[in-house]
Write a structure and sequence with these properties.
With 167 residues, the chain is an alpha+beta fold. It contains seven helices and five strands. It has helices at 3-12, 20-28, 52-64, 85-88, 115-118, 127-146, 150-158; strands spanning 43-47, 69-72, 76-80, 100-104, 108-112. The protein has a five-stranded antiparallel beta sheet, covered by helices on one side.
Length: 167
């Protein structure tokens, strides 16, 4: 198998593709309300119990599986869903202004969807519901990971069967 074949294998098995499209699709699935539009404020979406060691391990899992880029701050870890080339190669060292989910040292989960990502949805979904679902989705990923079921996170993303050539 040549270089092109290997590259295509990795693309189709989603080993070279960031999973942001799948994340947004999963967050939007339960939303049917289309009332209110975009707002720039982050939303608190819940609370979990985890240690700092578990949070760091989860961050490594998310990065290794091309789900999110973790940014370690003094009192929280922020998972960026912006996978621009400048962010991937480390030229952008902060999570703003893209979409992100944060887990703080007290267990609070907060989500933010950027205007750039929000306009990609076909429908004008209720922004608060999308943010809540995004935070709940990541909290669920964390819970599965902590139970040793990280492979179920990957399975859930793969079950969407989105085109591997889309963003």
């Amino acid at each position: 198998m040549g270089a092109v074949g290997v590259t295509l294998y990795f693309i189709f098995t989603r080993r070279l593709k960031w999973r942001s499209r799948e994340i947004f699709e999963l967050a939007a699935m339960p939303v049917s309300e289309t009332s209110n539009g975009f707002t720039g404020r982050p939303m608190h979406t819940g609370k979990l119990s985890y240690s700092q060691i578990e949070l760091r391990a989860f961050a490594e899992f998310m990065l290794n599986n091309l789900i999110a880029i973790p940014y370690f701050e003094e009192n929280r870890v922020v998972f960026s869903l912006d996978h621009s080339i400048s962010r991937i190669v480390g030229l952008k060292q902060e999570h703003e202004p893209g979409s992100w989910i944060s887990f703080d040292n007290d267990g609070n989960v907060t989500a933010h969807i950027s205007a750039k990502d929000y306009v990609k949805f076909k429908d004008t979904f209720a922004f608060d519901k999308l943010c809540t679902n995004l935070g709940v989705l990541f909290a669920g990923f964390m819970e599965k990971f902590l139970k040793g079921e990280g492979v179920r996170v990957i399975d859930k993303l793969n079950d969407l069967r989105l085109n591997p050539f889309t963003e």
